């Protein structure tokens, strides 16, 4: 019994390790898994930059940034979601990644501005 459990455990580790080799995906399931990993990293980076930026803002500017961020999330979700007759709502993961990367770059630009010349409230509401 112990050998069987050990064998199953090793097999699971090997399958997981292979699925995480995103340079050489074996099938569409691996590709989806890898896309998800890449998107999660991009989303984590966006959240990190957002938090760094909010630390530099006044209370009023934080509210402005937050409302702009909520509008961006709604716009991103609308742009990256399609309706399919066969499957219902379909999310375009490449679109999510592009939108998230673009927004992270925008947030980084605002962070650089705050650090170098000061936070410009007029640029936070986008």
UniProtKB/TrEMBL annotation:
Lineage top rank: taxon: Bacteria
Coiled-coil spans in chain: none
Keywords: Signal
The protein, known as: Lysozyme inhibitor LprI-like N-terminal domain-containing protein
Signal peptide: 1-19
Keyword Phosphoprotein applies: no
Occurrences of domain Lysozyme inhibitor LprI-like N-terminal (ranges): 27-107
Record's keyword annotation contains NADP: no
InterPro entries: LprI-like_N
């Amino acid at each position: 019994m112990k050998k069987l459990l050990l064998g199953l455990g090793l097999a699971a580790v090997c399958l997981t390790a292979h699925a995480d080799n995103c340079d050489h995906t074996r099938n569409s399931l691996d590709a989806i898994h890898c896309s998800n990993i890449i998107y999660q990293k991009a989303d984590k980076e966006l959240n990190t930059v957002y938090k760094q930026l909010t630390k530099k803002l006044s209370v009023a500017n934080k509210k402005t940034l937050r409302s702009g961020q909520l509008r961006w999330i709604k716009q991103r979700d609308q742009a990256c979601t399609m309706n399919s007759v066969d499957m219902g709502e379909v999310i375009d993961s490449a679109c999510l990644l592009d939108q998230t990367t673009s927004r992270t770059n925008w947030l980084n630009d605002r962070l650089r501005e705050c650090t170098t010349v000061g936070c410009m409230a007029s640029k936070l509401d986008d």
